Amino acid sequence: MTDQAEHPHPRSTQPPVRLPLSGDTPLEPPAVWEELRARCPVAHATLPSGDTAVYLTRYDDVRGLLSDPRFVRPTEQDNAARMAPEGAGGAAATGSSAIATPNRGEPHQRWRRQVGRYFTAKRMTALRPGMTRLAESLVDTMLADGAPADLRASLGFPFPVYVICDLLGVPAEDRDRFSGWSDSFLSVTRYSADEIRTAQAEFVAYMSGHIAAKRAAPADDLLSVLITQSEEAGGAGSEVEGGGLSDEELVSTGMGLLVAGHETTANSIGKMVSLLLADRGRWESLLADPSLVRTAVEESLRFDSNLGFGLRRYLGEDAEIGGQVVPEGSTVVCSMPAANRDERAFTGADAMDLARTPNPHLTFGVGPHSCLGQALARTELQVVLEVLLARVPTLRLAVPAAELRKTEGLLVGGLSEVPVSW
Hints:
alpha+beta; 15 helices
């Protein structure tokens, strides 16, 4: 890693912001976003490592950069700003090539084509009845155990974990191990270098063994399908156009999807329910008109100010952003939640409009690197909300929204617990 000072940054009169930012409460946006969007949309930010990056907060700038296929997430090979302090970053924070999915060019497009075939809206619709039964079972158990309850522990965490374990054909009884591995994967400051190395080695070994077992005895889960497709396409790791995925890519895919199923979707469930309960009128609107569930889910995704750091992009060449030239070698942090509150893109951006349509939020990214699992995440959020409205109409937060606590030290944002009563 060379000195970040070697890389020039666009001129700015605004002092660098220090990431991660925080709002007055875990559900409120940092006040500085509005100021940055108005006066310094291409800002400097100091990362937890101490390195400096460019920080984008306007919708058009964030969307434009994320849509540009020239710019991708940093890897260990790039002279990029480090996200985490030395030794504290997990694979998602450091761009570790050991377990990262293909990131650039044709290998990335090939990987997306292979995996994306499984995550279609049609396929997710077919899975919906099973998801509904699972959510109902978890909610019934929560109700039987009595109030108050932690919605994150009772439903928000186990629901997407069971779903992704089923999709990947991995044993759900190993979910506690997956949780620790997922946190280490997303660590910015939570774990030491030794803890991360140990967890990564265990995670890779586990998933490698799982891939080998699926190759020997394929089933109808996603990883079995990918293995079969790879073999039919000319063998795993084939370099021919349209060839199959290598074992390393299969392992990376399984690990990445398990992480997404644990932290990101679990966090989204807790934050969505908290946002809807923080203002009782929102919950009552949905009880009165359950047809609003789909648009309410999208608005919850847009309104979520606690997404984490945002998506990083490494500039391999100069780029014009917001009327400024950001030089080659810069690392750019795209703040999707700040962009999602931009009045230039959303009328009444700071109001939660459960019927908002269209709603082109950037929570799942956009362009060639947008989230492959977004159809799954949307379906899970809709199912959870439908089941809670039907089974627990009197649901309420058991503590004031201001007393909810954010998760700390990870690349993604969330709530450590969601205390509820009914």
